[in-house]
Design a protein that fits this description.
Strand content of chain A: 15-25%
Distance between the termini of chain B: 10 Å
CATH topology of chain B: TIM Barrel
CATH architecture of chain B: Alpha-Beta Barrel
Structural class of chain A: alpha+beta
Largest interface: A-B, 35 and 30 residues
Strand order of the largest sheet of chain B: 1-6-5-4-3-2
Distance between the termini of chain A: 52 Å
Radius of gyration of chain B: 15 Å
Low-confidence stretches of chain A: none
CATH superfamily of the largest domain in chain A: Sulfite Reductase Hemoprotein, domain 1
Order of helices and strands of chain B: EEEHEHEHEH
CATH class of the largest domain in chain A: Alpha Beta
Number of domains of chain B: 1
Shape of chain A: globular
Largest sheet of chain A: 6 strands, mixed
CATH class of chain B: Alpha Beta
CATH architecture of the largest domain in chain A: 2-Layer Sandwich
Radius of gyration of chain A: 23 Å
CATH topology of the largest domain in chain A: Sulfite Reductase Hemoprotein, domain 1
Mean pLDDT of chain A: 95
Oligomer: heterodimer
Low-confidence stretches of chain B: 23-36
Number of strands of chain A: 21
Mean pLDDT of chain B: 80
Largest sheet of chain B: 6 strands, parallel
């Protein structure tokens, strides 16, 4: 993973000192609240329903064992001993105190971590594929480019005051695990006879107006990545709406201008930048790539590929079939660790969990772990022969659930329990659904299914792209939930369709269960939920869902 | 680099030949500046389109760039475009809601003089420039 150098460390220390000054100025009454708000947001600090919330960046999801331990200690010393992994490969603390923030940021900086630009109208954490560098369907490793973009976007002088937040995702694999089509900019590394190139997508996003992005450049030479992105951001910064925050994202601008006109404006802006000083030379590509060289793999052979294993009654075999993924290196596997556990909010971890993950990363995966946008953890480089041992160890920490991609592997925002934007709670909904699908056998029979829950239309829980999407709404002061079905996040991304009237909290898990029963009753052999939906139509699901409802 | 403080944070009226905003022709020309003469100082609003005043850039010696509110990012891009796209090499002076904490970013976008908002402390504003020993982007210079 990327190793900080002395200049990077000094930069972070200076940023921390600057924030300490700003906080002191604010607390002394010398910095107006509206200005301090913007400055603290750019250091990840929100003021939430019950307390401040700090969002810490985990750039493109890669984190070291040492950093996991630092986070564990920080949750103990500054918070209540737990934290929450988000859908953008960040981690959030729910109870830090404003006065303690400068010290907290110093502690993060000691571990080469920060909360820079994890909120505010600026370029946010760059997200990527959790299996980068190990996935068997990989075309090129996206991490060197993700790090390059992280550096480029960090305190960018021109793009710190955009009309609205700006999210960039990058993938280098055939299968898109970074959901690039629902990002402000989505980048896809491709390759042909002439070499590597990027496909550049813009204007995707969820929230109030969910849209799938459009491809505005189908073959961008990698050396132009920074100058081309600068051109996109410049057009957005200049023309994006600033009069209405609900219409301020780039997706609205792209839609208003039309794809062609937007492309033309970007190309015009690019004229002044192309081949300029920010063109990426071969040397710097090599330098960035060197940070992501392959670890010291042992010369092993594949035992038996995980995909050939058929689930049996044995917990290990089931876990292996469900949570272990093939690897580029013979004899190795990538292991998915579920953070969707009974009685724990999706994506939540305790300080002890973080330390256990650090230990396991050290023992089994070259001291590194990955965070996924589905709020789980990956150990990317595990020897296949050590899988049984790892499984046992995970079991001791309640981290061995074999539910990757299944109904209980829900994406869920913190919702009304924590977030001041939420219209409704989402964690209790996830808990009720978890209880409904708790039986591993039944969940396994049901097969792959994504259930995504957001507590409001800001869509942090990505409800639009869940096979079943659940959105919390406020109905005359009561929590109701609107359902959509048919969403999909990957290379065939699409937005789910609203099913019908919203339903009360007490009934939502029953409705979800009826939808899955409808799917099971109608599916043919290997059909996915969305394939069945496409074949039989939404009306069948609708009548199944609402039958006998009281609300 | 110049740091200018005025009573209300706005430039002296007599320094401006023309004011540009949006897609329009100039809003008004200074009475004292003959219309036939190309403007040598231009006031640029945040929504101005550089193509509209491009023909004046060759003779311009001063551009007064308006930052209407400190969260408005457009003047940053305007300054960067004036330098990179239009190769304007004269003075770019930002005025309006200019606060200390923003000086380094404004400076790095090619702005080389600043009319500070009235309640800002000039000394601490200058401290902001050079606060960081490293940047991850090249600076845009005049």
């Amino acid at each position: 993973m990327y190793q900080y150098n002395e200049a990077d460390r000094r930069f972070l220390q200076q940023r921390c000192r600057q924030f300490r000054d700003q906080t002191n100025q604010f607390l002394a009454g010398n910095l107006p609240a509206e200005e301090f708000q913007q400055l603290r947001l750019r250091n990840g600090l929100y003021i939430q329903r019950l307390a401040p919330m700090l969002r810490i960046a985990i750039p493109y999801g890669e984190i070291s064992a040492q950093q996991l331990r630092a986070l564990a200690a920080i949750t103990r010393d500054f918070d209540k001993g737990y934290a929450h992994f988000t859908t953008r490969q960040n981690i959030q603390l729910n109870w830090p105190k404003l006065e303690a923030m400068p010290d907290l940021l110093d502690r993060l900086a000691d571990a080469d971590m920060h909360a820079i630009q994890t909120s505010g109208s600026c370029i946010r954490n760059i997200t990527s594929d959790q299996f980068a560098g190990v996935a068997i369907d990989e075309i090129a490793d996206p991490r060197p480019w993700a790090e390059l973009l992280r550096q480029w976007s960090t305190l960018h002088p021109e793009f710190n005051w955009l009309p609205r937040k700006f999210k960039i995702a990058i993938t280098g694999a055939a299968s898109d695990r970074a959901a690039i089509a629902v990002h402000d900019i989505g980048l896809r590394l491709q390759s042909d006879d002439a070499g590597l190139y990027f496909q550049v997508w813009v204007g995707g996003g969820l929230g109030r107006t969910p849209l799938i992005g459009v491809c505005i450049n189908s073959r961008l030479e990698p050396k132009h990545l920074i100058t081309y992105l600068t051109a996109i951001l410049r057009v957005y910064n200049q023309f994006g709406r600033r009069d209405n925050k609900y219409k301020a994202r780039i997706k609205i601008l792209v839609k208003a201008m039309g794809q062609r006109a937007f492309e033309a404006a970007v190309n015009n802006a690019w004229l002044a930048l192309k081949d300029g000083p920010e063109t990426i030379d071969e040397d710097s590509i090599a330098q960035f790539s060197a940070h992501f060289s392959r670890p010291n793999y042992l010369p092993l052979t594949d035992q038996n590929a995980p995909s050939e294993i058929i689930a049996t009654d044995q917990p290990f075999e089931r876990w292996r079939a469900q949570n272990v993924l093939p690897h580029q290196q013979p004899g190795y596997a990538a292991v998915h660790i579920s953070l969707k556990r009974t009685g724990v909010a999706p994506g939540d971890v305790s300080d002890r969990d973080l330390e256990a993950l650090a230990d396991l990363a050290e023992r089994y995966s070259f001291g590194e772990a990955r965070v996924t946008h589905e709020q789980n953890i990956v150990l990317a480089d595990v020897e296949q022969s050590k899988l049984p041992e790892l499984f046992m160890a995970l079991g001791r920490h309640n981290l061995d659930r074999a539910n990757r991609g299944l109904a209980t592997d829900m994406i869920c925002c913190p919702g009304g329990d924590y977030c001041s934007l939420a219209n409704a709670k989402s964690i209790p909904v996830a808990a009720a659904i978890e209880e409904t699908f708790h039986d591993a056998e039944a969940e396994h029979d049901l097969g792959p299914l994504s259930i995504n829950i957001s507590g409001c239309m800001n869509a942090c829980g990505h409800h639009h792209v869940g096979n079943i999407g659940i959105l919390g709404v406020d109905k005359k002061g009561e929590e109701f939930y609107q359902l959509s079905i048919g969403g999909e996040p990957g290379e065939d991304a699409r937005i789910g369709r609203i099913l019908g009237p919203s339903v009360a909290r007490a009934e939502i898990h029953w409705v979800v269960q009826r939808l899955t029963q409808c799917y099971q009753a109608h599916r043919s052999a290997e059909e996915t939920f969305n394939q069945t939906l496409d074949r039989i139509g939404i009306e069948v699901f609708k009548s199944a869902a609402y039958e006998g409802l009281t609300s | 680099m110049r740091l200018i403080t005025t009573v209300n944070g706005y430039p002296e009226r007599q320094e401006i030949d023309s004011i540009w905003s949006g897609y329009d022709e100039p809003l008004r020309l200074d009475d004292e500046a003959p219309r036939s003469k190309a403007a040598s100082s231009l006031q640029i609003e945040a929504d101005a389109l550089p193509d509209a005043f491009q023909s004046h850039l060759e003779t311009a010696r001063l551009i007064l760039l308006h930052l209407p509110v400190f969260t408005d990012g457009r003047p940053y891009s305007l300054a960067a475009m004036l330098r990179q796209h239009y190769r304007y090499a004269g003075e770019i002076r930002v005025f309006g809601d200019v606060r200390s904490a923003q000086l380094d970013h404004l400076h790095r976008c090619g702005i080389n003089s600043f009319v500070l908002k009235e309640d800002q402390d000039a000394a601490s504003a200058l401290d902001q420039i050079g606060y960081f020993s490293k940047w991850y982007q090249p600076n845009i210079s005049a």
